[in-house]
Write a structure and sequence with these properties.
It is a single chain. 31% of the residues lie in helices and 21% in strands. By secondary structure, the protein is an alpha/beta fold. It has two domains: 38-145 and 249-288, Periplasmic binding protein-like II (D-Maltodextrin-Binding Protein, domain 2); 146-246, D-Maltodextrin-Binding Protein, domain 2. The strands form two sheets. Strands 1, 4, 5, 6, 7, 8, 9, 10, 11, 12 and 13 form an eleven-stranded mixed sheet that branches. Strands 2-3 form a two-stranded antiparallel sheet.
Length: 294
């Protein structure tokens, strides 16, 4: 997924979906401040700049700390306040495979590399696009889902914003999450637009609804699950026929981390056992690409 001006208004997306594939031993501590002192986290994990000893440290503490943001349908809260979602439940299933408890910690997306390097989190798992410029800062798991960036607008503007050209104007305010693939899509395709960056992708939806922006560029996975008939954003829609660069989602680890191989093995086992397919059926907007081995 990448400030010139941060826009407020956080949104709680509450959908009444029951969690499946989760472990009773897995916990959701997403309210834990992202500013947890690096000294305590790094000391407990024993993480060096190169994460060669990550797996032994995680085994010792018995906890895998996952950095994430609230991103429906990957990680979000249901009506009862339980953290659910495709990534949430897949991470919990991996935790079961590895024999460790999964703890989720909300982070500022723009700070993900810093949080990882500081040892505050063990991985970034939140519908993260595998970008070339991020490969220098972290190692990635095998891809498990596809994605693309799409423009979202108010239904009332359906006849106004029908093409990239119609949005590429200084008179049009286009927003995306800071540091996201959506911001990159704006830079590449709408350089003349009035670009605005927000803290989280969901903020694009609240700003569109309030009329403070004209276009939001977000992940198709989120847009498909969040806007249109039957959602809380029935007055918003995806602009049909416009798809920016195809992407793949992966999990981010410290450079050189031996945790990468452990998680990759667990992911493939879960695919072979049909768990990934079950989650794909439960969360149909996720473009799952991880399949059982032939």
């Amino acid at each position: 997924m990448k400030k010139f001006l941060a826009v407020s208004a956080a949104l709680s997306l509450a959908l009444s979906l029951a969690a499946c594939g989760g472990s009773a031993s897995s916990s959701a501590a997403a309210s834990t401040p992202a500013s947890t002192p690096a000294s305590s986290a790094a000391a407990s994990s024993g993480a060096a700049a190169e994460g060669n000893g990550d797996w032994a440290a995680i085994q010792e503490k018995g906890t895998l700390v996952v950095g994430m943001t609230i991103f429906d349908p990957m990680n979000y809260y249901d009506a009862d306040g339980n953290l659910i979602g495709f990534d949430t439940e897949l991470a919990q299933a991996v935790g079961e495979k590895l024999g460790v408890e999964v703890q989720f910690q909300e982070i500022e997306w723009n700070n993900k590399v810093m949080e990882l390097d500081a040892g505050n989190i063990d991985c970034v798992w939140n519908g993260m696009t595998i970008l070339d410029d991020l490969k220098d800062a972290m190692d990635f798991s095998i891809p498990y889902s596809g994605n693309m960036q799409v423009p979202v607008i108010n239904v009332a503007n359906a006849d106004t914003y029908t093409s990239v050209e119609s949005m590429n104007s200084p008179d049009v305010t286009v927003a995306a999450e800071s540091g996201s693939a959506g911001e990159g899509a704006i830079d590449d395709n709408m350089p003349d637009a009035n670009k605005l960056t927000v803290t989280a992708q969901r903020d694009c939806l609240t700003e569109l609804k309030s009329g403070t922006i004209d276009v939001g560029v977000i992940d198709y996975v989120m847009a498909d699950a969040s806007v249109g008939e039957g959602t809380s954003y029935s007055d918003l829609q995806i602009v049909e026929g416009i798809e920016f660069a195809k992407e793949e989602y992966g999990i981010g680890f410290r450079k050189g981390s031996d945790l990468t191989e452990k998680v990759n093995k667990a992911l493939q086992e879960l695919a072979d056992e049909g768990v990934v397919a079950q989650l794909a059926e439960k969360y149909p907007s996720v473009m799952v690409t991880l399949k059982a081995a032939q």
